[in-house]
Amino acid sequence: MNVTDVDPVRIRGAWEGRVSGCLLGKPLEVLSFQEGVAGIADYLEQADAAPLRDYVPLIEGSLAERTGAGCCRGHIVRAEPDDDINYTLLALLILEDKGGDFDTVDVARAWLKLLPAGTTWTAERAAYRVLMNRMADEFVNGAEPGFDLAECSDNDYNEWIGAQIRADLYGWVCPGEPARAAELARRDAALSHRGEGVHGAAFVAALGAAIPMTDSMESAIESALAEIPADSDTAAAVRYGRALSGSDDPVASLHSEYAGMSPVHTLNNLALVVWALCSTEGDFGAAIGNAVAAGWDTDCNGATVGGLVGLSGVPVPAEWTRPWNGRIGVDLAGIGELRLDDVTDRTVAVARSLAA
Questions:
Q1: How confident is the model at residue 103 (pLDDT cuts 50, 70, 90)?
Q2: How many CB atoms lie within 10 A of CB 320?
Q3: What share of the chain is helix, strand, coil (3-state, %, to 5)?
Q4: Strand, helix or coil at 303?
Q5: What is the Cα–Cα distance from 242 to 272, expressed in whole angstroms?
Q6: pLDDT tens sequence across 140-198
Q7: Rounded CA separation 42/89 (Å)
Q8: pTM to 2 decimals?
Q9: Cβ neighbours of residue 195 closer than 8 Å, sequence gap 6 or more
Q10: What pLDDT is attached to residue 4?
Q11: Which of 107, 195, 308, 336 is surrounded by the fewest CB atoms within 10 Å?
Q12: Could you give the CA distance from residue 39 to residue 22 in angstroms, rounded to a whole number?
């Protein structure tokens, strides 16, 4: 690919889709964790919002009101801060600062400088704890770590979804280069994840890079699969999610296949993402609506599906973007809010720099 292959319209669509999908899933996330997909179905039925094709209505006194009222229909004025968006922006900042030659040590430094510890969870929080315990001030300012950075990924959550939600932008900025996108995602993921956690991140990044060079989501998925081990559980999850397209009760099948797995694991959520992408091609609202209503990590899956569908060239309808007014709330140090136009332009600039 070259500079002329970087499509600003696709990149804007990716941002629009990721932010909108994250907003859609945010009010239902804790409900999903506590009551499962049945709890989501009950909520949507009470709210007369099934199938889910618009932002979640607010039911007063509900768990959604306590955890995500600002992301509910009629109450949205901006995209409220969320880790799914923080990490996408952090990837952009790393690439702006270091270019495509960044390494995992650079990711660690960026976390310490920009990412508040209180906004991290599971594998990321475990890795952050190691960094805080082991790092001297000199490391933040450019010195070598002085210990094996692999200690950070030696945690109980290193195959959970965290690395996968950090990977999207690496694909957006490498159109037509899935191998390169996967490698960037692996360098980022390695700080906190191992095994299937890294494979999930590499697949999502590779898929984003493959979408602009292929004529269908199916073809892009095949290209992205080539960037992870064929015998991995991640590849099996992708194939399983793809096979569910057109099945009678895919959500029940997903929850049966992955019964007992953490709702924030890489594998179950990736299978869900692939199913949503393959079964609703060309319909943005159905893609993110189905991904969120199917449960598990609702804001993560809505964001990943939304970004990839927006990147594919499917227009993100104005009813999804109008409520948040191009305003993206951020929890990174020194950044309270960014504008959609700004992050789009900066992402395009990074993509063109990498292509050149």
A1: very high
A2: 23
A3: 65, 5, 30
A4: helix
A5: 9
A6: 778 888 889 999 999 999 999 999 999 999 999 999 999 999 999 999 999 999 999 99
A7: 34
A8: 0.97
A9: 158, 159
A10: 55
A11: 336
A12: 19
CA distance 53 to 57: 11
- Angle ∠(254,257,259) on CA atoms, nearest 5: 95
Token couple for 316: 């993100």
> What is the Rg, in whole angstroms, of the alpha carbon atoms belonging to the chain?
19
Res. 327 pLDDT band, cuts 50 70 90: very high
| pLDDT tens-digit series, residues 266-282 | 999 999 999 999 999 88
Confidence band of 137 (pLDDT split at 50, 70, 90): low
- SS3 state of residue 79: strand
Output DSSP code: residue 28.
G
For the chain, give the mean pLDDT.
96
Per-residue pLDDT, 136 = 63
Using CA atoms, how far residue 275 sits from 166, 218, 241, 267, in Å, is: 20, 11, 4, 12
Which amino acid type is present at position 74? Answer: G
**Cα gap 262→247, rounded to integer Å:** 24
Greatest extent of the chain over all pairs of C-alpha atoms, in Å: 58
CA dist 246 and 289 (Å) reads 16
Which residues, including other chains, have CB under 8 Å from residue 210's CB and lie 6 or more apart? 171, 176, 178, 219, 220, 221, 223, 224
How large is the angle between the packed helices 196-210 and 217-225, nearest 10 degrees?
140
pLDDT of 135: 73
User: 26, 37, 131: which is closest to 83 by C-alpha?
Assistant: 26
**Which residue has tokens 């040590």?**
105
* Pair of tokens at residue 225: 């699969």
Residue 276 near residue 291 (C-beta atoms within 8 A):
yes
More confident residue, 54 or 146: 54
Mean pLDDT within 312-336: 97
Instruction: Return d(Cα 277, Cα 242) in angstroms, integer.
Output: 8
Helix axes 284-293, 266-279, angle to 10 degrees: 150
